[in-house]
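Have a close read of this protein, sequence plus C-alpha cells, and explain what the C-alpha cells say about the fold. Thanks in advance:
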Amino acid sequence: MGHPNQFDLENPPVRPAGSDLLVKALLAFANADRIVLWQSGEIRQWSHWRAEPSTEERAAHVRFLQAAMENPWSALGFFTADNSGQPRPTNAVIEFSGRIPNADCALLPDQNLYLCLEHMHASIDRSRGPFLVGRRRSYSLTDYRCYTNVASALTVAMLLLVDDSEPYSKALCRCKLPRCQNFYLARRNPKGGPANRSYCSPEHRKEYQDSADRKKLDRGSKARHK
C-alpha cells in the first residue's frame, strides 16, 4: 500500500471540512496515510477509545471501500436483496441512539457498520454554530460539525461515498498497478478522452505497460489467438 504519509484534515469553524475533503481523507486512510484531524488548534484522537487506529480497523476500511467500488448498495449491508442480488426497492429509516459501549471496541465498517454509525452519532458535537461566514462577495450560513475524533469524520465520508445523490461512488476506483492498489477518484482528462479508471496516475499506467506482468499477459493473449 506504499509508505505512510500524513493527511491533514482541517475542520475549523470558519471553514469546516466539506464533502470533498472528508472523502479524500477516507481514501488516504485506506491508502495507509495517517489522518491528523485539526480542530480549533487541537489534534483529535482516532476514536472514542484510543489515540491511533489498529491494523484491523484500517484493513476493514479497505474492505469497505472495495465493496463500495463493486456495489455501493451492498457495502452498507443493512438491507435485503432479491435472488438476483439486486436491492429490493424499499424505504428504511435507521435511528441512532448515540449509545456506545464503555469498553474499547474496534470500528470495523464491513462487519459492524451500525457500531460505526452509533460512534459517529456520539462523536459529533453540533452545539457550536451555525456560523455566518463572510466571503469576498457574499455571505453563507454554515453548519459546523465538530468531530471529536477522526473515526467519526471518516464515517461521514463513508456515508457520502454510498449516497447515489453524490458523485463519489461512481468515481471510486483502485489502481491496478500491483505495487500500488491505492483508492482514488477518477477524473476526466481535461484534454478530452475517458476518465482514468484503471490507474491513479499516468506514471503508474506507463509503469504497468512496461512491466513484465503486462508483457507476459500480452504473450499469453497472442498464444490463445493463434
